[in-house]
TrEMBL record:
It is found in: Golgi apparatus membrane. Keywords: Glycosyltransferase, Golgi apparatus, Signal, Signal-anchor, Transferase, Transmembrane. This is Exostosin GT47 domain-containing protein. Its main location: Golgi. It is a single-pass type II membrane protein. InterPro entries: Exostosin (IPR004263), Exostosin_GT47 (IPR040911). Belongs to the glycosyltransferase 47 family.
Amino acid sequence: MGTPALALALLLACARAAVVAAQDTERIEGSAGDVLEDDPVGRLKVYVYELPTKYNKKMVAKDSRCLSHMFAAEIFMHRFLLSSAIRTLNPEEADWFYTPVYTTCDLTPWGHPLPFKSPRIMRSAIQFISKRWPYWNRTEGADHFFVVPHDFGACFHYQEEKAIERGVLPLLRRATLVQTFGQKDHVCLKEGSITIPPYAPPQKMKTHLVPPETPRSIFVYFRGLFYDTANDPEGGYYARGARASVWENFKNNPLFDISTDHPPTYYEDMQRAIFCLCPLGWAPWSPRLVEAVVFGCIPVIIADDIVLPFADAIPWEEIGVFVAEDDVPKLDTILTSIPMEVILRKQRLLANPSMKQAMLFPQPAQPGDAFHQILNGLARKLPHGQDVFLKPGQKALNWTEGPRGDLKPW
């Protein structure tokens, strides 16, 4: 049987199995145990600093678009903690300290977050808490966590070369970072960071759900940029050429439903697809990863050395397909060669409600959601070792380190 015929057979088989795949789920276990269904309450306490509203609420009041872009996890994590059973009003009993500063809520007219003020905002917030409470100074942030969901986390730049040149903001080098960026052996991924999914609007996604028996009649689906001509006019640097390779090799392949158009049926289309491409962009991850899992579309992850969200809980190797960037020209052969029983098992795992819930930041929070997976990650770092606490007069961080512009008051 030739490749197109085999692919068509897979399409028909998966369409017939759609009901089974949606209803018959398999139990999910990660390397850290059953943390998808775990409850972190009682295992840690978090103290939430009260900051002037210029660091958070005023930013959202100024531009409500901050509530819906892919970096909005920093806002919803703050709101979640304020009403969570994890929160303590007594800092003396806290295991972790959280500083609610929204470093991505500075948007262009087109809605793209700008990171240029972020180092100054973060530095100013840390100066504020270090002067008003004793807890930062006794550890210089080693028992503090910060949500930094920029493209390259606490490197605070959207261009990789600049991000690498900057490195992680010096004042955050002892803190735990909760960030969407995850790439192995990268200067912007601090050891011990908790990698989270980008924000995707849960309520909006829920309104686009199709009946579970809907046939998956699309073999491969992708909507998005293939070339970022505005920032990469020569076309070789964006996505390290992987997206360009997808387009050049498969734009005329009938098995591939790919386009730069973003139709109003985008969410519905993903629920009709067997495979959803999740290639890197400027950073290794994208919201497509969340959308694919939520909509039961097998994610085809094209991003070498990616560190995936909640990898100690979610068995990514079992639910996804990993394709090396250099192997993109062979995508059709790779995907049509996957045995039918492997596809169906991936679909059964993706149908598990715990899997979908772990990728979302719903309001109000729900058991096992992304908020709880973050708390599970923090709980697994306890108890803090004695090396966390500095001796009287001891200093570990250099407050004058970093680009000169970062040192300006905010």
